[in-house]
Design a protein that fits this description.
The protein is mainly alpha-helical. It is built from five helices and no strands. Helix content is 76%, strand content 0%. The radius of gyration is 21 Å and the shape is elongated.
Length: 140
Amino acid sequence: MVKWAGWIIALAGTGHTLGSLIEAAPDHAGTWFGGWNMGDYPEMSDATVAWWYSVFSFGPPLLLIGLTVLWLDRRGMTPPLFIPWAMVTWVVVGFVVDGPSPLLILLVAAGLWLAGARRTRRREDASPQTDTASRTRMES
């Protein structure tokens, strides 16, 4: 379950980053690499808005979070649970403020992550009891 969560998060980050770059870069890449001044917030140019929408968006960090989750899962480690709870909060606030978006898929990823962590915790809690019971039988 945690592995699926990692893949969903990584794909959401990749999709947003590539989609926004495909949409924004053709019109603004020349300005980005031409040494433009970003300007202050109230005076943001179209190039600055496109920069924040693509390169400095949440897409690259989501990709890194997803890849980190996959890396930890491959090593048998459960990623920290504050991350899916923070994602749930972020998506719900975004939904309330801006309405539905494709990022609702992150709720699925967070749910899989939390369920996978719970399943792992149950297995870890059950394993010492199993070891104790088998040792007791072996000693008898």
